Amino acid sequence: MNPGGDIEMTSMHVLSLEQAYQLALRTLRSNGFNQAHAEAVAQNVTQGERDGCASHGLYRLLGCVRSLRVGKVSADAVPKLFDQAPAILRADAGGAFSLLAYRTALPAFIGKVRANGIAALAINRCVHFSALWADIEPLTEQGLVALACTPSHAWVTPAGGSRPLFGTNPIAFGWPRPDRPPFLFDMATSAAARGEIELHRRAGTPLPEGWGIDKAGNPSTDAASVLEGAMLTFGGHKGSALAAMVELLAGPLIGDMTSKESLAYDNGTGSSPYGGELIIALDPKRFLGADKAKYFAGAEAMFADMQAQGARIPGERRYRQRRQSEQYGVEIPRTLYDEIMALCD
Question: What percentage of the chain has pLDDT greater than the value 90?
């Protein structure tokens, strides 16, 4: 995008953030999602596009509609909350996307964190496609420290394996900072997010080495062959162990599916993963009391030391892109825009 002049990129389509949101909302509503679910999903994919996360932006509308058309997501389920324990809240999404269930549970969840100093939210029976930073950011805005994780479909082979078993199994963590954006990272335990590989396939571009293997177990940089084979974890056995941890925490621990079970439930329809999400939040005021400012100053000193060495603070690029998008809008491939518009007809 050229913020200072005319845009001459025939292969791209430029949208203001409001136009992007309205496009997403129209797409979802015209395909049968009720107003509440459509608003939650439209806000989420617009935020992804706004923050430069194309793999979780408007492109995700294609999968949302496909999941509905093949009967793998509810368009109108009403989330149900269960007060499981003093510091545990459970939200049953009823087979719908996780976003409305999370939005519904958030006030009660924050209340539990304030009351106990730490609390966990389990979202069950949800279809999940969204980036986890969107679930963490509302908590850091409240001054809370938080982390989240969720399995997906079995697309990733464990270290030393050759067949898919784990999901991309992202982990997100957020740390609130005074008068500036939070320290917030959201990373797949796979070498790349599934959506990134799909975008490479759509663009016909090769993958970086180390992202995946083909059906025969051979290293591959061809996106289509990796999508048919298996993705790899980052960092070999270290990423593999973290992926297994996510399977356990956001699967059996909260009474929900593993990635292998989610893929079996999908039954070849190409829908978004089905299962659970675990979110844990901590209140620094309850941990530190009057000493909070002292120890948070120590955290800021650490961030300053990172930057002094030229290191990037996780999340900085996203917030920088956010500011630019708020001013100049976003651009998506013309082919994607045409596909989304076709869904509205």
Answer: 92
